[in-house]
Amino acid sequence: MTDDVREVRNLQTALDSFSEHWQPHRLASVNDYDVKVFKAQGEFTWHTHPDTDEFFMVVSGRLVIQLRDGDVELGAGDVYVVPRGVEHCPRADGEVSAMLIEPRGTVNTGDTPSERTAQLRELG
C-alpha cells in the first residue's frame, strides 16, 4: 500500500489552513471529481455550468444560492445541488466555510470568466 492510499485529511484542518475568500482548494479527488473546500464572504458572480451539476455543502455559516426564480438558503450541514445549466450566484452575508464536489477541471465561474475566476489550489 502506498502512502497516498492511507492519506487522511481533516475537513476543519483544511479550512483552517487558508483565509482567502472564493479561492477553492482541493481536499481530495474521487474518480474524475474534485472535492473542494472554500471560504466565502460577499457576493460571487452570476454564472452557469452548462455541462455539470454543482454540489454545495455548508460546513459553517449561512450561504445563499441566488437563482433567477428564488433563493436557496443553506446553513451548517445543509446540502444543495445546482442543476447543470442553471444560472446561480452564491452569496455569503457573513463568512462561510463550504465544500464543493465537481468534475475535475470545472472552473469556479463556469461560463462567465471574471475577476473571481480562480485556479484550483492544492492544500499544503
From TrEMBL:
Biased composition (Polar residues): 106-117
Region (Disordered): 104-124
Organism, as annotated: Agromyces fucosus
Limits of the Cupin type-2 domain: 38-101
Top-level division of the source organism's lineage: Bacteria
The protein, known as: Cupin domain-containing protein
